[in-house]
Write a structure and sequence with these properties.
Layout lengths: L15 H20 L3 E2 L5 E3 H4 L4 H6 L3 E3 L10 H6 L2 H8 E5 L4 H10 L8 E10 L11 E10 L5 H16 L6 E6 H10 L6 H8 L2 H15 L4 H6 L1 H5 L4 H11 L4 H19 L6 E4 L13 E6 L10 E6 L13 E7 H10 L13 E3 L4 H16 L4 E3 L6 H10 L4 E4 L2 H6 L2 E5 L5 E4 L1 H11 L2
Parallel strand pairs: 1-5, 7-8, 12-13, 12-14
Antiparallel strand pairs: 2-4, 3-4, 5-6, 6-11, 7-9, 9-10, 10-11, 14-15, 15-16
Helix pairs in contact: 1-7, 1-15, 8-14, 9-10, 13-14
């Protein structure tokens, strides 16, 4: 008995309807990327381990899918590593490549390799799949698409302002009103670590703080204690968990808390600049919110960081995020190349639009006209008309077999094809066709030009 096929956990098949909806989102995002001056690039689905590992923190590295070397990958493994069952040592000997974890680090590698061909500042966008060995759950997959836009080669905060406007433009065009663009600054987080006396534990501090929405304040404090952050330091951090009020009010409270931290105050100034700009150029449907505990636990962020939340009525994780990285390309030898970028979570955006019933009904329309097949001669007559209608921009198909009429009509109904055309001997003799509206049942005997004119109005 043949084994029943299945899919790896965290992956999915997509039906024609789902692909049409995904393409609709991608087209909207691509349009605005281009409209904001970004250029498209693509990079390989896998990279050298030396490119990826060590760029996402310990937790990120554990989620990278490694690819076994081809051939007899155990032949060169040292016996002591094999016998010791040391997975880290063993991995270094049997795998040299991994599936990409995100699009940002491959982009940094791309910039370094192509720096002599690029005009800086370089604005690029990239829409490709990425892979993470994460635990699958609603809105979280092991294979998913990222839609990234980055500017590299400029330290100007106007780029951050434009990215906020870009988020707003995309979600407004999708009809997804009420998203929250949450913003913070890694310099503020560095300042917090400084004023509580835990500068040397900045990474542990930010990784724990980034989990606030998942494990709550008690969980964050527990993890900080486990990472060696003192109880006294955690008590000094208490006001952060209690900040409230609008953007400016929180910045005022934060300024008092970070009054002795130069780097922290610099972060506040950057946030204030962005807030003032957005006040001058109000967003269409999104709202900009300050979230002091937002950390985004990736090591390469150095300035402003973003995370986009769906409207409150939808229970979903972030649907976008990004931030400023001052020296990401430095890890590949190109120093002092500041950049900033954001990402759209295609799969989660899809789920949100589906839940709120925001997909336009027309995007899933497929074949508009089906020609019924009555036999060899009739099929040839029909296929000549099919070719002409296709050239006029209609989506037209000929049923491939001269099956019973009922079977062909049922096929049209199941596919929601709105019109069928019948062309038997009688029609062929008169050089006409019978056009049938599948919803109303009305039939009209018309020549091809008349059919084209009638349907052009219907599908305009």
């Amino acid at each position: 008995m043949a084994q029943k096929p299945g899919l790896p956990k965290g992956t999915r098949d997509f039906s024609p309807e789902e692909v049409a909806k995904r393409n609709y989102i991608i087209q909207q995002i691509s349009h605005h990327f281009s409209n904001f001056g970004f250029q498209p690039i693509e990079t390989p689905s896998f990279e050298n381990n030396s490119t990826l590992l060590g760029k996402y923190g310990d937790e990120g590295d554990r989620l990278i899918f490694k690819i076994l070397n081809s051939g007899d990958f155990l032949a060169k493994v040292k016996d002591e590593a094999y016998q010791a069952k040391d997975s880290n040592s063993l991995a270094q000997q049997i795998t040299e490549k991994s599936l990409r974890y995100d699009l940002t680090v491959p982009f940094a590698r791309y910039v370094v390799q192509h720096q002599n061909e690029i005009d800086f500042p370089f604005k690029r966008y990239q829409i490709q799949p990425v892979w993470r060995a994460d635990r699958p759950q609603k809105g979280r997959f092991r294979e998913f698409y990222q839609c990234d836009a980055d500017v590299i080669g400029s330290k100007s905060l106007w780029q951050e302002v434009e990215f906020i406007q870009l988020y707003d433009a995309v979600f407004s065009s999708l009809g997804l009103n009420g998203v929250s663009i949450n913003i913070n600054n890694r310099k503020v987080l560095s300042g917090l670590a400084e004023v509580i006396g835990e500068t040397d534990k900045l990474i542990d501090f930010t990784v724990a703080l980034d989990k606030l929405d998942k494990i709550g304040r008690a969980g964050v404090e527990k993890e900080m204690l486990e990472k060696g952050i003192s109880q006294e330091a955690i008590q000094k951090l208490a006001p952060v968990f209690e900040f409230s009020g609008d953007f400016d009010h929180q910045l005022q409270d934060l300024s008092q808390l970070l009054s002795d931290s130069e780097v922290g105050l610099q972060g506040i100034q950057e946030l204030q600049f962005i807030s003032n700009c957005i006040k001058e150029m109000p967003l269409q449907t999104a709202q900009l919110s300050l979230n002091i505990t937002l950390a985004r636990g990736l090591n390469y962020y150095t300035g402003c960081i973003f995370e986009v939340s769906a409207p409150e009525e939808v229970k979903m994780g972030s649907i976008g995020g990004g931030g400023r990285y001052d020296d990401l390309t430095g890890i590949f030898g190109l120093k002092d190349m500041s950049g900033v970028g954001i990402s759209f979570g295609l799969d989660r955006i899809y789920l949100v639009l589906e839940e709120l019933d925001l997909f336009p009904k027309t995007i899933t329309e497929g074949t508009q006209i089906l020609f019924i097949n009555f036999g060899k001669n009739e099929a040839l007559y029909a296929l000549k008309a099919v070719s002409k209608l296709r050239k006029k921009g209609f989506s037209v198909d000929l049923y491939p077999d001269a099956a019973k009429m009922k079977k062909q009509m049922n096929f049209a109904n199941k596919r929601n094809i709105p019109y069928v055309i019948l062309a038997g001997e009688a029609e062929m003799q008169k050089e006409v066709f019978t056009l049938k509206n599948m919803q109303s049942g009305e039939q009209f005997e018309l020549n091809l030009n008349q059919i084209a004119q009638r349907l052009a109005d219907k599908f305009a």
